[in-house]
Amino acid sequence: MKGAFRWTFLLVLAAFFVIPMLAMARFAFQSVPVVLLTPETLLTGWSIQPILTIFSTPQALSAARVSVLLALFTISLNLVLLIPLAIVTEVKAPRMRPLLTALTLLPWVVPPIALVVGVAATFRTGAPWFLASVYSLVPFYALWAMPFTYRALDAGLQATGAKTLYEAARSMGASLPVIIFRVLLPNMTASIIAAAALTSAMVLGEFAFASLLLKETLPTFMVNFQRSDARAGLALALFVLVVTAISIGLVVRVLRKRGLNVQTTGI
C-alpha cells in the first residue's frame, strides 16, 4: 500500500512538471496550431529554428554572458562571507546557529521591490556609479541566495564533524590557516558545490531585481524578446530550464558519489 502511494505521488509530481514542459516545447518548436492538432499532425511541423533564431541574436549571447558572470560573482561573494561565519559558528559558537539561520532568512522577509527602492534611494545620490553598473545586482543576488548558501555549508560542516576535525588538528599543533585550508575546506567540497549550484539556478532565473534596476540579464531579455517573437522566447526559456535541471541533476549525482566514498582529509 505504501509503495503504491509513493509511486502514485511520484507520477503525479512528474506529470505536474512534465506536462507544462511538453506544452512549452509544442508551442515553441511546432508550427501546427492547437486547433489543427490531430493524431496525424502530432509529429509534423517540428523545427529547431526558433532556438537557432534566438541564439543568432547578439543580445541573447550578451545577456547570457552577463547572467553567468553575475552567478560567478554572487557565488564568490556568498562563499567569502559565509564560509568563515559558518565555520566559526560550528566550531566555536554552535548556540548561535539558530540566530544565524534567522538572519540569513531576513532578506526573504523584505519584498524585492522594497529592498531595491530602499537601496537605490541610498546610493542614487552618494554613489550613482554603483547603480549604473549591471554588477550592482550582485549584492542583491547574494542576499537573496544566503539561505541556500548557509544551509548547504552548515549541513556540510555538521556532516563531516567539523568541530571534531578542528579539535584534532589543534591537538596536533596545526595552525588556523592549515586547519581551514587543509582540513575543513576539502571536507566541505560537496556542500560548496551544492551551494554554488543552487545560487546559479537562482541567478539564472531571477527577474524581479534585474527588472526593477533596469538591467538586461537572461531572464529580462527572455521576457522582452517574447513580445516580438513568442515562440523563440519560449524556446529559450525551455532551453534554460532544461539546462538548469540537468546541471542540478549532475551536481546531485556528484554529491551522491562523494557521499558514498567520503574520506576524512588527513592532517
Describe this structure in words.
There is one protein chain. This protein is mainly alpha-helical. It folds into two domains: 1-32; 51-260, MetI-like (MetI-like fold), CATH 1.10.3720.10. The chain is 79% helix and 0% strand. The protein is built from 13 helices and no strands. It has helices at 2-29, 49-55, 58-91, 97-109, 112-126, 128-132, 137-159, 162-171, 176-187, 189-205, 208-212, 218-228, 230-260. Helix 1 runs antiparallel to helix 13, helix 2 crosses helix 13 and helix 3 runs antiparallel to helix 10 (189-205). The protein starts with a helix and ends in a 7-residue tail after the last helix. The model is unreliable at 260-267 (pLDDT under 50).
General shape: globular
CATH architecture of the largest domain: Orthogonal Bundle
CATH level-3 fold name of the largest domain: MetI-like fold
Main pleated sheet: none
Give the % helix. Answer: over 70%
The span between the termini is 50 Å
Range of strand content: under 5%
Can you count the beta strands?
Answer: 0
**Total domain units:** 2
- SS-based structural class? mainly alpha
Q: Secondary-structure element order, as H and E?
A: HHHHHHHHHHHHH
User: Tell me, what is the CATH class of the largest domain?
Assistant: Mainly Alpha
State the low-pLDDT regions, or none.
260-267
Mean pLDDT: 83
